[in-house]
Description:
The protein is an alpha/beta fold. The protein has helices at 12-16, 32-38, 51-54, 66-79, 98-112, 126-134, 150-153, 163-179, 191-200, 221-224, 241-257, 276-288, and strands at 24-28, 44-47, 84-88, 116-118, 139-144, 183-187, 205-208, 216-219. The radius of gyration is 24 Å and the shape is globular. The N and C termini lie far apart (53 Å). It has an eight-stranded parallel β-barrel, surrounded by five helices. It has two domains: 12-243, TIM Barrel (Alpha-Beta Barrel); 244-288, no CATH class. Strand 4, helix 6 (126-134) and strand 5 form a beta-alpha-beta unit. The protein is built from twelve helices and eight strands.
Amino acid sequence: xxxxxxMRRLTAPDIRARKGRExxxxxxSYHAHTARLLDAHCDFLLVGDSLGMVxxxxxxxxPVPLELMIMHGAAVVRGASHALVVVDxxxxxxxxxxxxxxxxxxxxxxETGCGAVKLEGGRRMAETIAFLTERGxxxxxxxxxTPQSVNTMGGFKTQGRRxxxxxxxxxxxxxxxxAGAFAAVLEGMAEALAAKITxxxxxxxxxxxxxxxxDGQILVLEDMLGLSPSPPKFVKKFAELARAIEEAVKxxxxxxxxxxxxxxxxxxxxxxxxxAGERVTKMSKTKAS
Length: 289
Ligand code: KIV
């Protein structure tokens, strides 16, 4: 007899409790079908605003609207049943004030069913992080290279490779943790600084381009699958799907052009005893009577 054991979806406190115990595994996901594939292997899935660049062809994440995050967030929640789903608050939806952030984050939570939101910024966002967490919205922080600030940073620049940059980034990490975030993404950061922050704060650090010193890792799914045309240097390709897709599409095109596809296995035969002529006759009789 088969037994169906219901899996409980992981929560923000579950992820928080992993600090110092177990590495945290996560990937981005933007659709129900990838969510279904990743769900059993990841502790949380991030509906990152990187979807604007990866899926919608924007040059940065700045143009991504809240509605797009909600649409993709809801799809990922429908596809996953085990992993915590975290949805990014896009640029312009939370920086103005804690109450604007609460209104938009609450909309994301209600309309997607996700378990937490993520926002970028350290000390400058601490008040907002506290405001949201005190009101029932789990927040994941994101410091170091913060892509929504690409225009003020002057590009996607690795952080903390000079000692004089460290104090500000460490202060950001402490502010995010003290404000009540349950975890913090460290993006594009020198290994030694990521190690120092990971030891200094009581919440898990999730690294992306920030070394194995972090409590967990995240990558953009399309980067690690070899689907992105120019992934960042820190990405390891665990597959070469772009090549596999191109090969498959080339084979399909060749077979269609040669009249080989669809073949005998890919067509619907008539039911036994039926043939097109008989069916047409029956249908015409029914119509006539
Ligand atoms: O948008 C995103 O995918 C992210 C990850 C890079 C952490 O924020």
